[in-house]
Each structure stands twice: as C-alpha cells, then as structure tokens.
Amino acid sequence: MYSITKGDTVKALILAGGFATRLRPLSCTRPKTLFPLVNKPLLQWIFERLADNGVDEVVMAVNALTQFYIRQQKPPKCGLKVRFSIDPPKMPLGTAGPIKKAEKLLGHNEPFIVLNGDIFADINYKKLLRTHTETNALATIALCTLEDPSAFGVADVCNGNQIKQFIEKPPKNEAPSNLINAGAYVLSPKVFEYIPEGRAVSIEREVFPKLAAESRLSGFRMEGLWMDIGKPQEYLDANKTILDSISSKLKKPKSKKINISLPVAIDKGVTIAEGSTIGPYAIIGKNVKVGKNVQICDSVVFPDVEIGDDTTISGVIVGEGARIGKNVKLGKGCIIGDLVKVKDNVGIHESSSVCPAKEISENILKPKVVC
Ligand code: GDD
Ligand code: MG
Predict the structure, then answer these.
(1) Is 279 in contact with 296 (CB distance < 8 Å)?
(2) CB 128 within 8 A of CB 111
(3) Looking at the chain, which residues constitute the CATH 2.160.10.10 domain(s)?
C-alpha cells in the first residue's frame, strides 16, 4: 500500500485526445478541453482545481493537433509543471493506452490522478487521493449520481466503497446503479501491468472490469458540481450553471445606454452600442463588438465576434471571429462555426448549424446543417 507524504510530487494525467463529434462544428477548430466556460477554457478550470488540490505536475495525453491548439492558446498553467505525451500519428490509444505510454513520465513511486479533459467537476482531489491510499484498491474512481447513467461508465458498489462490477455504457434500464464514473480516478502504478502496450486500450472496458473482478476497484462519492459538456445543449447549460455559481463575484457593467439583465459575463475589450439588451445568461468573449439595439440572451459568444445593429441572438453558440450582420435573427439551438459570415437581414432557423468560415446570405427556413 502507498501513502502520500509531504514532499512527494503529486502527478495528474489529463486525457484530452478524443474527437468531440457531438460538438461539431465548433469542435472542428478546437478540442473540447479548450471550449470556453464563462470565458475561461475548460482546461484552465481543471488546472486551477488541480493546483488548489496540491498537484505539482500534469501530463497532457493528447494527439498532435490538440497539442498544437493548447500550445497556441496557452491557458495559464497555474504553477503546474505541464508536459505533453502524444499518441502516435493516426493511432489514437483510447483511454488506457495513453496512460501506458506516459508510464515513464508518471513513474512508479506514487499513485497518480487521471482525468478526462472534457468534464467540469468540483472534485476534492486531495480527498480522492487519501481515500485511495486507505484501501488496497489499485484504482479509485470518483463517482457521481445521475438519473440516467446509460451514456456513462456505471459502478455497482458493495461493502461500503468497493466496486464489484463496472459496466461502460450499459443498455438503457440495465444499469446496476445510478453511480457513474465522473471521469476522474486515482491509479496505483501497478495498473501499468494491466495495460497492453502499443495498441488502443479502453480503461473502462478492459481494465476496470478486471480490477473489479479481483476486488481491487474502489469508489469515492464526490459532492458538488459535475458537468459533461458533450452536447451543445449541455455546453450551454454548463455555462449557465457556472455563471449562476460565480455571478455574485462578477462586476455589473455600468452604462445608462445599454440594458443589462443579470447574470451576464462580459470579457475584456468588449464594446456594446446604445439600446442593446444583454442577458440574462449572455456570456460574451474578449473583444466582441456589439452594435446598436442588439439583443443577446441564453447564449455564448466566443471572442472576436462582430454583431451588427438590430440583431437578435437567443439560445445560440457563436464561434470565434464570426461576423453577424445587421438585423439578423439567430434561432434557439443554432451553432455558428468560427469565422462564419452571416449577411444583413438573414434569419437562421432554430437548431441549424453552420460550419467554419461559411457565408450565409439567404434565410434558412428549416433546421439545416450548412457545410
Ligand atoms: N490521448 C487520448 N487518446 N485521449 C483520448 C482518446 C485517445 O485515443 N480517446 C478519448 N480520449 C479522451 C477524451 O478526449 C476524453 O477527455 C476522455 O479521454 C474520455 O473519452 P470520451 O470519448 O469523452 O469518453 P466518454 O465521454 O464517452 O466516456 C468517458 O467519460 C465518462 C464521464 O464523462 C468514460 O470514462 C465514462 O466511463 C465516464 O462516465
Ligand atoms: Mg466524454
């Protein structure tokens, strides 16, 4: 059994090499871990929490493209030492393969944390590590309760915290419990022996079930906020929930010429012309320019967007650098890709999405994907 003592280096590996197909077209131009949540990349939220919990070093397990985007965006490291471990070209290693690949970086001295880079979670990692060292488990999974667990990994817990069975994405109504893998766990170095080298391996399908069968898998029930940002609506909801939780700390912009309906989050360098109504739940990224008499609510607007006069945006995600003309209407559930141009007087039907850099010059009258 390991025990973590003061002075040991605490390490975490972040899995962030997957392909976020359900967040297209926004995920065509950025990995999920860099999606902004209330104007801060998800990865920065993760780094902050890890640093607050005494973690010293992070290994980013990514593919080459994700590494490129992270290096380009440079989210603040919050005092952590950050290293990259890259999947081989054209060979994604799954969720366990990248852990095996990073074996040397992680070392064999102490247990380490593994996180999915696409979840927002208020996990007490210190407690998670401590719980792990108190049992003889080789893996301790942070568990959270969900009404419908079928889209996740589900744990069947017995004898307090021991997991007797782990089933990844069970068929609907066949889940043994409502306790899901929150996408964060602690592994003891012995787990490296359970991961075959040089091929894609799923920790959830190939390693956890084996550890459960050997009675070496444990659970840790987390408290607090947990959110997956896998689908557009979940992404919008996560922004709203975080905004609610921090809105008391945000300053209300002062202007007599615009109407602000809280909660809102407005980043640096944003300009808003007179007569516009912002909020509730408008999250506006850096350097966005908003024209006169614009209405924005229930929406996330990425940085460097320009929005013309008299435009209405409600329930929409607008990608970075998009140009939205005058008197445009963007309906609920629309996703506008990065650098898209929408011409003046155009209406886009609810639930439509537009791929990066496309130009829209005519009304879209029914839900459509413009690619
Ligand atoms: N480096 C690398 N290489 N990372 C990968 C790869 C890969 O080939 N495949 C997936 N990942 C990363 C993803 O970027 C993500 O951060 C994490 O591993 C999990 O993969 P997902 O594809 O997002 O899995 P999921 O959401 O269907 O299910 C997982 O997360 C749930 C919680 O959100 C599982 O761990 C479930 O058990 C869990 O409940
Ligand atoms: Mg996921």
Answers:
(1) yes
(2) no
(3) 256-370
Nearest CA residue ID for atom 4, ligand 1: 17
Q: Which residues partner with 49 through β-bridges?
A: none
Residues catalogued as catalytic: 169
pLDDT, mean over the chain: 94
For ligand 2, an ion, list residues with CB under 5 A.
118
CA distance 332 to 314: 6
Residue nearest to atom 11 of ligand 1 (CA): 18
Domain with CATH 3.90.550.10 in the chain: 11-228
**May I ask the CATH class of domain 11-228?**
alpha beta
Tens digits of residue pLDDT in 3-26: 555 568 999 999 998 777 888 998
Instruction: Measure the CA–CA gap between 229 and 276, rounded to whole angstroms.
Output: 29
- Regarding the beta carbon of 183 and ligand 1, being less than 6 Å apart is answered yes
> Ligand nearest 16 Cα, by number?
1
> pLDDT tens-digit profile of 281-300?
999 999 999 999 999 999 99
Distance 83 CA to ligand 1 centre (A): 19
CA distance 6 to 202: 33
3-state secondary structure of 361: coil
| 70 alpha carbon – ligand 2 mean position (Å) | 18
What sign does the CA torsion over 103, 61, 228, 48 have?
positive
Long-range pairs of 155-163 with CB within 8 A, sequence gap ≥ 24: 155/179, 155/180, 155/181, 155/219, 157/219, 161/131, 161/135, 161/218, 161/219, 161/220, 161/221, 162/135, 162/137, 162/215, 162/217, 162/218, 162/219, 163/208, 163/212, 163/217, 163/218, 163/219
CB of 115 closer than 6 angstroms to any ligand 1 atom: no
Identify the helix (H) or strand (E) that includes residue 245. helix 232-246
CATH code assigned to 256-370: 2.160.10.10
Q: Residue 32 C-alpha to ligand 2 middle, in angstroms? A: 9
What confidence tens digit (pLDDT) does each residue in 308-320 have? Answer: 999 999 999 999 9
Is the beta carbon of 42 within 6 A of some atom in ligand 1? no
